[in-house]
Amino acid sequence: MHPADKYGRVFVLRIGHRPQRDKRVTTHVALAARAFGANGFILGDTCDPSIMESIRRVVELWGGPFHSECGVNSVRYASKWREEGGEVIHLTMYGLPVEELIDEIRSSSREKLIVVGAEKTPRDFYEIASYNVAIGNQPHSEVSALAVFLDRLFRGEWARIQFKGAKLKIQPSPREKKIVSLRE
Ligand code: SAM
Question: Whose CA is nearest to atom 16 of ligand 1?
Answer without folding.
Answer: 116
